[in-house]
Amino acid sequence: MTTFQIPGLDYGSGESSPEPEEEPMDNHMCIDCYSIAMKIVQQPRGTPTPDKYLVVHELSNEELALFGNVLRESDVDPDGDDFIPHAPLPDCDRCNSYYRASCKEHPLFWVKDREPAKSSKPEDRARMTAPAFISIKTSSIPNAGMGAFAEACIPVSFRAVGMVFGPYQGILIDDASESERDGYCWELRSSAGPRFIDGSNTQYSNWMRYINSSRHDKEQNLLAFQYCGGVYYRVIRPIKIKDELLGGKSRCLRANRLR
User: What residue numbers bound the domain in which 187 lies?
Assistant: First the structure.
């Protein structure tokens, strides 16, 4: 008996054909130089990255898998204790979702501090921890002392987190009265009660102590938040070359609880 077959199809031996192998990809965390925004760019391995992208980090497949994992609403407690391990970072305003790491379409890039050279003086430690594209010099704000300035364009991710700096470093103290001596203390929330991190001593703090407060809302380009027991700054407006990095309007907020 002749079996009916459709002409042109290869029926072979009846065994299923193997799944095609996926083409290996390169994963880049980039700055889109046109929109001044962070972006994850994936392309076939070995393909040159388009000129409009500045690669800031090569993402491994393991790192890439961390992005885009949405948290359920029941897992998110915006008013909860940020000391809980793996607490979510600020939500993506554009997607209106919380993520375990960050949104894949509007990604976060955590900029780590530099390690001071072993030959540097202890009192220079804070200044020496500044990333390569941040310089420490006299603030543009009168009588504000030293400030932190951009030596390259610092992007955001549209209405979301772009670059994040931190954590703020210093000495942990419990005495609230000591936290009011100067403008270098942040109050930290915890289940055990408030504690303070004091960045006044340059031997134990990092470059973030030099981030001054803006004089008005339009001048502000950073926003502080608490995450897993530490204080971080996120970029909320693109920062141009030679612009100063500026946080909230009043330095007295350093002794207030972060929201």
Answer: 116-256
Q: Give the Cα separation of 223 and 234 in Å (integer).
A: 5
Specify the pLDDT at position 159: 44
Can you name the residues that pair with 154 across neighbouring β-strands? 239
Tell me the residue type at 201: N
Please give the tally of structural domains in the chain: 1
In angstroms, the Cα distances linking 241 to 123, 129, 138, 150, 152 are 27, 19, 16, 5, 5
pTM of the model: 0.72
* Pairing verdict, β 163-165 and 109-111: parallel
Does residue 211 lie in a domain region? Answer: yes
What dihedral do alpha carbons 179, 182, 188, 189 form, nearest 10°?
60
Q: In this structure, is residue 167 part of a structural domain?
A: yes
Residue 192 in any domain: the answer is yes
Residue indicated by tokens 């300035």: 149
Kindly list the averaged pLDDT for each block of 10 residues, start to end, along the chain of length 259: 49 60 88 83 93 90 88 62 40 74 82 90 95 95 95 70 86 82 81 86 96 92 85 89 86 38
